[in-house]
Design goal:
This protein has ten helices and eleven strands. With 327 residues, it is an alpha/beta fold. It folds into two domains: 1-117 and 284-327, Isopropylmalate Dehydrogenase, CATH 3.40.718; 118-276, Isopropylmalate Dehydrogenase (3-Layer(aba) Sandwich). Strands 3-2-1-4-11-10-5-6-9-7-8 form an eleven-stranded mixed sheet, sandwiched between helices. A hairpin with a 7-residue loop joins β5 (121-126) and β6 (134-137). α5 (147-163) crosses α10 (316-326). The radius of gyration is 20 Å and the shape is globular. GO terms for molecular function: phosphate:acyl-[acyl carrier protein] acyltransferase activity. It comes from Alkalicoccus urumqiensis (Bacillus urumqiensis). Its EC number is 2.3.1.274.
């Protein structure tokens, strides 16, 4: 497999991308890496491997760039070049931790949608208390959605969870304000009816307070609501760790207790850590395009690379294409 990597995107670029790619290079002997970015910042010994190629460019898309303008005007930007390599069949997939809107725009304009898919969805894996995680679609690719979009999100998510996570009948739930089918907005009520008729394992509505309990493998919603959920879960986890850190270092007694409980706290953190779950896939495109978290460290970036590798190996895109054709 050939993977194009934008090493210039993200808060910790290029080091986090390089660290994650080095781990992936060691873990996947059949993986060829195409690193797109400023060659002067890539001087590590492992980059001399025959499975690594560097494509030099100093131009990058900034976090505050307007997505559409940036993609159209910055043709030499590392992100745009990485996505273009997928379009040109030089790479099987690409990954970036840069500007989310720009990556979605580049994916749509350059790679293109699978025929039959109305709208792509940005879909991260999020943690659950049992450690299994769930796939949330959509978290911002489409702020306004139709019921038919949510049904397609569920179908694409089911293919992914089956092929990549090995779940025979992934449980699909619809995010709503109550468990009853008649509740919610017109969009949600119409989507409920469509999901009941779709060829998926639909288990009904799920409330926000139930998301982390592991009741569903896939949760579908519109991009506006999904983005709120994503940011709320991330913010709550970070706030919880900050509160614990402050309390456990506030006195000598607490510091001693923290020393004893350190392994338990590490287990809790690992269950809530986005770094363990990889990036967010842009589902519905002609090839895997993965958005790594903007604040990714090397481990988080490696997890995102692993997701791209697995999607390619398990033929997720051809399976989604086949499902779209059968509708």
């Amino acid at each position: 497999m050939k993977l194009a990597v934008d090493v210039m995107g993200g808060d910790n670029a290029p080091q986090s991308a390089l660290d994650g790619c080095r781990s992936a290079h060691d873990a996947f002997p059949d993986l060829e890496l195409i690193l797109v970015g400023d060659e002067s910042q890539m001087k590590e010994d492992w980059l001399e491997s025959s499975r690594v190629r560097i494509v030099h460019t100093t131009e990058k898309i900034e976090s505050d760039d307007a997505p559409v303008k940036a993609v159209r005007r910055k043709k030499e930007a590392s992100m745009v070049k990485a996505v273009q390599m997928v379009k040109d069949k030089e790479a099987d997939a690409c990954i970036s931790a840069g500007n989310t809107g720009a990556l979605m725009t580049a994916g749509l304009l350059i790679v293109g949608r699978i025929p039959g898919i109305e709208r792509p969805a940005l879909a991260p894996m999020l943690p659950t208390l049992d450690g299994g995680g769930f796939l949330l679609l959509d978290v911002g690719a489409n702020m306004e959605a139709k019921a038919s979009h949510l049904v397609q999100y569920a179908e694409m998510g089911s293919v992914y969870m089956n092929r990549v996570r090995g779940i025979e009948k992934p449980r699909v739930a619809l995010l709503n304000v109550g468990a009853e089918g008649g509740k919610g907005t017109e969009l949600v009520k119409e989507a409920f009816d469509g999901l009941e008729q779709a060829d998926i394992h639909f288990i009904g509505n799920i409330e926000g307070r139930e998301l982390l309990e592991g009741r569903a493998d896939i949760v579908v919603t519109d991009g506006f609501s999904g983005n709120l959920v994503l940011k709320t879960i991330e913010g709550t986890a970070l706030s919880l760790f900050q509160i614990l850190r402050k309390e456990l270092t506030s006195s000598l007694k607490n510091k001693l207790a923290a020393g004893v409980l350190k392994p338990a706290f590490k287990n809790v953190r690992s269950k809530l850590d986005y770094a363990e779950y990889g990036g967010a896939g842009l589902f519905g495109l002609q090839a895997p395009v993965i958005k790594a978290h903007g604040s990714s460290d090397g481990h988080a970036f490696f997890s995102a690379v692993r997701q791209a590798v697995t999607m390619h190996q398990e033929n997720v895109i051809p399976m989604i294409r086949k499902a779209a054709e059968e509708e």
